[in-house]
Amino acid sequence: MQMLGRMVLGMVSLLGSSALASLPVVSAAQTARGGCAYSIKVLEDVDPIPYPRPFYRITLESSVLTPATCTLQPQSFEIQTSRVLPQVAIQSSAEGIVVAYSYGEPIRTLGDFTHISVRSLDPSTLGTLRGAGLGSAWVPENGGAGGPGGVSLSALSIQGPYVEVSGTFTGNSLTEEPAGIPWPYPIWQGHEFVASYANFFTSTTAPILGTQACASLPPVLTVNGGSPLALECVKGGTYSDPGAQAVDGCGNPLVVHAYNTGADSSGPGPLLSYEGEYPVSYATWNHAGSVNVTRTVVVDDTTAPSLSLLGPSSMVHTCNTPWKDPGVTATDACYGNLTPQVSRTGEVNAWAVGVYTLTYSVTDAGGNSAAPVTRTVQVVNCPW
Q1: Are residues 27 and 92 in the same domain?
Q2: Domain boundaries, position 314
Q3: Under 8 Å between Cβ of 336 and 354
């Protein structure tokens, strides 16, 4: 008898759209795109075997709203059956059309064993471009055999490149179908979920399963190296920006746009040859919002100049002849040649016998002083 019932149901499912049109609609959802209307409907039929009980048929339909922009041939056909009342949803955007629906059957003593199907549709034919599914299970803590659970659909949304499906489940675990992970599946806390499919219309990336609609969360932008970023002043130095990273609310990377790094057209970037504070800005954005962060680059001279004697540090000079200082040389990593800024204390009397000490010192514009250097000059052999 059960086999006969399946044969009868199979025959009914092959009936044309006129037979489907005679069935009552118990729920439906609609959307419009490009002057065309699209709908998903739940029709109530009867399964007579082994006794009369509800049997639901999920159908897709398309029609023309604006002939000037919609050129499709209207379609109407069944895509799924269910012995449990389905929930259905349909959404459209510039990227495409998505439907989601639940389906399944009751299992005696265990409750409803239901799944969710998510499909991207061809706008012209309503054919499936991408299919995905969600299912629930009871997973014993000891990793045993477990059992089936049920999934219910609450909402479907398109968030930029994301498709998000939310709902509830009766088991203690939720996975995509077919499951991409081995048994036993991870055990969840709670019974609400959001499945976020990144780039649903262009890829087959597995969904991010969680309890929050991550695709609607704003981006997060983090600068590498922190801010403020302290760098040493170096004459002729070139700034190399550490960059920044950005992710969307689901943790997927986003493009970061940088300004005034020296490698973009918005500015020369921090000048390492000159002390000061320089702003470097970063921005990222997506459908959920935008974020702007500015890094302050502090170029500071903290290195003392280099000061060296020219000639010996100890000299002997014959009295009664002029003495000429060989001088010193001073260089600074930030300010370059500081020799003209060197100061000297002490004098040499070339006409009086004695030992004279000269001290040289220099301080750069950043306030850094070189270690002083000294020279001793001994004047000898005066004729008087």
Answers
A1: yes
A2: 306-380
A3: no
Averaged pLDDT, 344-372 = 96
Backbone angles phi, psi at 290, to 5 degrees: -135, 155
Length of the chain equals 384
The answer on 60 and 187 residing in a single domain is yes
How many structural domains is the chain composed of?
A: 3
* Angle value at C-alpha 189, between 188 and 193, nearest 5 degrees: 70
How far lies 352's CA from each of 57, 359, 384, in Å? 120, 20, 9
**Pair (290, 318) in one structural domain:** no
Q: Per-residue confidence at 49, pLDDT binned at 50, 70, 90?
A: confident
CA angle (265 as vertex; 264, 266 as ends), nearest 5: 95
pLDDT band per the 50, 70, 90 thresholds, residue 12: very low
Residues 192 and 91 in one domain: yes
Last residue of a domain, one of 300, 331, 347: 300
Question: What are residue 113's DSSP bridge partners?
Answer: 105
Identify which has the larger pLDDT, 98 or 5.
98
Give the range among 25-39, 111-125, 184-198, 290-304 with minimum mean pLDDT. 184-198
Q: What is the dihedral of CA 138, 143, 144, 147, to 10 degrees?
A: 10
Distance separating the N- and C-terminal Cα atoms of the chain: 143
Domain endpoint, select from 216, 244, 276: 216
SS (H, E, C) 8-34: HHHHHHCCCHHHHHCCCEEEEEEEEEC
